[in-house]
């Protein structure tokens, strides 16, 4: 078994649509970034790459590369999954934490779990999505952006 951890953070951009966990979240500011800036899928991608010892998202999708400008993070995640599977590995479960003062994640949590499960070829019961605030502390506590943490367990496809 192989464990990976991922982290991502992006500042708010009121001119963009917010995408979290592969879902468009209506009525909320988006995030600054080269792609769609989905911090949840970015943290998950880094966790998958880390568990497979394949580097990080920046190695595979450089922020200055025009190919990935405004790209859906679900597309990036599909590329990551192909690399992980090429290493003979597959995910077993995922645990994600979103750190944000706003928007509230709870109303979107079940759909997010279902979307992430579908992207990874897992049952929704193998995907955990939690949310917390930063209790008013630091940039996240001042609602300047959103961060996410991800932990993933990989196993060999044919042990």
Description:
The protein is of the alpha+beta class and 159 residues long. It has a single domain (2-156), classed as 60s Ribosomal Protein L30, Chain: A, CATH 3.30.1330. It is built from five helices and five strands, in the order E-E-H-H-H-E-H-E-H-E. Strands 2-1-5-3-4 form a five-stranded mixed beta sheet. Strand 1 and strand 2 form a beta hairpin. Helix 1 runs parallel beside helix 3.
**Class by alpha and beta content:** alpha+beta
Helix content: 25-40%
By DSSP, the count of extended strands is 5
For the sheet with most strands, the description reads:
5 strands, mixed
**Helical segment count:** 5
Residue fraction in strands = 35-45%
Shape type? globular
| Second-tier CATH architecture | 2-Layer Sandwich
Would you spell out the secondary-structure blueprint of this structure?
Layout: E1 2-20, E2 23-31, H1 39-51, H2 57-60, H3 73-86, E3 89-99, H4 109-120, E4 127-132, H5 138-141, E5 145-156
Parallel strand pairs: 3-4
Antiparallel strand pairs: 1-2, 1-5, 3-5
Helix pairs in contact: 1-3
Give the tags:
five-stranded mixed sheet; 5 helices; 60s Ribosomal Protein L30, Chain: A; alpha+beta; about 160 residues
Give a short overview.
With 159 residues, the protein is of the alpha+beta class. The chain contains five helices and five strands; from the N terminus they run ββαααβαβαβ. The chain has helices spanning 39-51, 57-60, 73-86, 109-120, 138-141, and strands spanning 2-20, 23-31, 89-99, 127-132, 145-156.
